[in-house]
Design brief:
Length: 518
């Protein structure tokens, strides 16, 4: 009986099994918010208070990745994708932390309101980090802009060691940087330094002027006048008019040198000066300089190379006509200079023809004198110029005829009858003590002689019993050179004769032509 009772006693005191986890705490909204707020710090502190260590480490890892991406501070800031992803992650862990903290007791502190206050205080750290990061980002932006400024400065410095033509693109690139800093970042430290940099920019671009290289200075100074169109006026600090007087001086000096040396750009440079800076002191010097150049070339007509002076005056006249002047009185004075150069060139053609004749260039002398006679029919030298043209043409066939310059002398005591034994109308030209020319009609029954017949012994033209066309002229004693030139399109070649005239004789000169050897 007692044994049975003992068995029943043991069955009445069996120990129940232990629960698998502590029972959940009563729901607490304040605690849930505290855990969520603590997780928003990005350090996973909410998970630490509810003993979710792996999740806390995940939060720390996510924040570390963000810091790795964001630091050091960059002017472009944190990539938007990374920032959006991190914010979404914080929202997620905050929401999850709230669920975890709703029914989970805190490891510390014991009071949920105190944990909430602690979470709110800790939110100051990321907020302060954002402010500090923005400051670092602004500083990085400032440094980036200063670096751009320094790069533009180096570009200008290097360009200053080259010619403007080769360096112009670099100057433009640097100017774009200065313009961008002033326009797009006006409050930056770099923009505050731009006005000083522009002074260096101007002096570097216009350095050729300070060296006295006026022709080289024209293009860069002209370029600098376009800079104010791109830069704010406040950044130029009085530099707007800096190139003007320098450019006016350079245009005048370069054009003056070109006028003296015969270069081709001087007229356009004077024109640019007269239209761009019409009221400048340099502009008042233009017309006197041009007038002096014309006078100098006119003097050259009486020099050793009058033909060169003629060409220079012709060229000078045309170039002066191309100069554009805004002032009407200056334009009128330049027109007079151009006309004086042209008229002097025309009258100087005579001197040129004489010089060509004396140099034995008879073909050029003939052309020059014929041009002079055609253009100056009433000139005092027109009659002599016509005789020089005749003598030059004779000398092309008989070079000895060109040893002396013809005179305007006429007539003589010896009668010379010239007959035309030629089938062509001919021009008879003669020079010696007297120079002249006349024409004879063709001999209808005559023929041109072959060259062989003219060199055979006993050759005597005008020997047949014919009624030759003839003309009698009076010539003085001495040697006269004759050339008989067929007129029109005859294939015959001119014939020539040298007659030594003496007193007491009557001479007959026979004009004839020979067939061409070709």
């Amino acid at each position: 009986m007692s044994g049975d009772q003992h068995g029943r006693y043991d069955q009445g005191f069996v120990v129940p099994p232990m629960p698998a986890a502590p029972p959940p705490a009563p729901a607490d909204g304040v605690r849930a918010v505290a855990v969520a707020v603590l997780n928003l710090s990005g350090l996973g502190l909410g998970y630490a208070l509810v003993r979710r260590w792996i999740l806390m480490l995940l939060c720390l890892a996510a924040t570390a990745v963000l810091l790795f991406v964001a630091l050091p501070a960059d002017p472009d800031g944190v990539p938007v994708f990374a920032l959006v992803l991190y914010v979404a992650f914080l929202i997620g862990v905050a929401a999850h932390g709230a669920l975890a903290g709703l029914r989970t007791r805190l490891a510390w502190p014991p009071s949920a309101p105190l944990a909430l206050v602690l979470g709110l205080v800790l939110l100051v750290a990321p907020a302060g980090g954002v402010v500090a990061y923005d400051g670092a980002r602004d500083e990085a932006t400032q440094q980036m802009l200063l670096d751009r400024l320094d790069e533009a400065d180096r570009l200008v410095e290097a360009a200053g060691r080259r010619t403007f033509t080769s360096a112009q693109s670099d100057y433009r690139e640097a100017l774009e940087v200065y313009e961008d800093l002033s326009a797009d970042h006006p409050d930056s430290r770099a923009a505050a330094k731009v006005p000083a940099r522009m002074k260096t920019y101007y002096t570097t671009v216009g350095a050729a002027y300070e060296k006295g290289d006026y022709c080289e200075a024209v293009a860069p100074l002209d370029y600098l006048r376009t800079v104010p169109k791109k830069m704010p006026e406040t950044d130029l600090s009085g530099l707007k008019d800096w190139p003007d007087d320098r450019l006016a001086t350079s245009l005048y000096e370069c054009a003056s040198d070109g006028l003296a040396s015969g270069q081709s750009t001087w007229a356009s440079q004077f024109g640019q000066l007269l239209t761009t800076f019409p009221d400048s002191e340099q502009a008042t010097k233009v017309e006197p300089a041009v007038g002096s150049a014309v006078s100098a070339k006119v003097k050259g007509l009486g020099g050793s190379d009058p033909c060169a002076a003629v060409e220079q005056l012709k060229s000078l006249s045309g170039q002066i006509e191309n100069i554009t002047a805004e002032d009407a009185s200056v334009a009128a004075a330049l027109t007079k200079d151009a006309d004086r150069a042209a008229s002097s060139a025309g009258s100087g053609t005579y001197n040129c023809g004489v010089d060509q004749y004396k140099d034995g260039d008879f073909e050029s002398a003939q052309t020059t004198m014929e041009e002079y006679v055609s253009d100056h029919k009433s000139a005092k030298n027109a009659a002599l110029a016509k005789k020089i043209a005749i003598a030059a043409e004779v000398a092309q066939t008989v070079p000895a005829a060109g040893k002396k310059l013809p005179t305007t002398r006429t007539g003589g005591s010896i009668s010379v009858t010239v007959q035309n034994d030629s089938p062509d109308d001919i021009t008879v030209m003669y020079t010696g003590p007297v120079t002249g020319s006349f024409t004879l009609k063709a001999c209808g029954s005559c023929k041109a002689y072959s060259f062989a017949s003219t060199i055979s012994p006993g050759f005597k033209p005008c020997n047949a019993n014919k009624n030759y066309p003839e003309r009698t002229i009076s010539l003085p004693v001495g040697t006269t050179y004759f050339v008989h030139k067929p007129n029109g399109d005859s294939l015959s070649t001119p014939a020539s004769d040298t007659a030594k005239l003496e007193s007491g004789y009557i001479y007959t000169e026979c004009a004839y032509t020979t067939t061409s050897l070709s």
